Amino acid sequence: MLVNALRETAKVALDLVFPARCVNCRAEGTLLCANCLDDAVRLDGPACSRCAAPMKSGSLCQKCAASPRQTGVDRLIAAYKYDGAIREAIHALKYEGLRAVAPQLGGLMAQLPALGGMKLDLAIPVPVHPSRLRSRGYNQSDLLAKEVAARLSLPLDARSLRRVRNSPPQARTPDEQQRARQVEGAFEAMPDRVTGRRALLVDDVATTCSTLNACAGALKAAGAGWVAALVLAREV
Ligand SMILES: [Zn+2]
Ligand SMILES: [Zn+2]
Fold first, then answer.
1. What's the domain count of the chain?
2. Is residue 9 situated within a structural domain?
């Protein structure tokens, strides 16, 4: 814990000494510059309302339409394709300790038009297992959810959903069914906090959507009425 705290202090000190540089092109000024953001592929076109897969028309993609019983996420909103500068920014936030980029990324998520008019009761970050929290020092989804909640004037609830079982990092297991098995039963929600509520899950990236669906499943098992998810990036 002390080592983590010292490491964080050193990081903050470095952030103060050196001017901000774009995580992607290294231009001075901001952590993610306007040029790189312009080049990022936005996912605000027609998409499946449940899994955000881009598609030409209709409301559900073929895969979602084929599974009518919905225990996972009811609605997924993704801001960008997981690629280029957005991938660099997520990597910096997640693995390089660049917490300072969270406000900008959270701002990009909160301004998505799809969130307008959506009735929501609370924002919930996708939790990490306590052991990973100890080694990383923070949960990047907490940071993003905090920014999103503040901008949408939603209560932030980082305690109603817990990760009770760790699973290997997503990158090593891209297979969807395998991933779904890995996160099955990995989350638990507290009924007294979520029953009858409409929740917005917040995470950095959706790859197979297995983690988000497992979180939504736990929230619904605890009585949540409806669960949407908001991610900065989606693999498409
Ligand atoms: Zn740039
Ligand atoms: Zn779909």
1. 1
2. no
Indicate which CATH number applies to the domain containing 114.
Answer: 3.40.50
- pLDDT tens-digit map of 131-169: 989 989 999 999 999 999 999 999 999 999 999 998 776
Rounded to 5°, angle at Cα 165 from 162 and 166: 110
**226 and 124 in contact (C-beta within 8 Å)?**
no
For residue 47, list its beta bridge partners: 54
Judge whether 31 and 98 are in contact, CB under 8 Å: yes
**211 CA to middle of ligand 2, Å?**
15
Q: How far is the CA of 34 from the centre of ligand 1 (A)?
A: 7
Distance 187 CA to ligand 1 centre (A): 36
Q: Which ligand is nearest to the CA of 213?
A: 2
Taking the CB of residue 197, how many other CB atoms lie within 10 A of it?
Answer: 20
Cα–ligand 1 centroid distance for 57 (angstroms): 33
Does residue 138 fall inside a structural domain?
yes
Residue 119: exposure state from Cβ atoms within 10 A (0-12, 13-18, ≥19): exposed
Q: How long, in residues, is the chain?
A: 236
Q: Does residue 217 fall inside a structural domain? A: yes
> pTM of the predicted model, to two decimals?
0.89
Give a yes or no: residue 121 inside a domain.
yes
Rounded distance from Cα 27 to ligand 1 centre (Å) = 6
Q: Which domain covers residue 57, as residue numbers?
A: 43-234
The ligand whose atoms approach the alpha carbon of 66 most closely is: 2
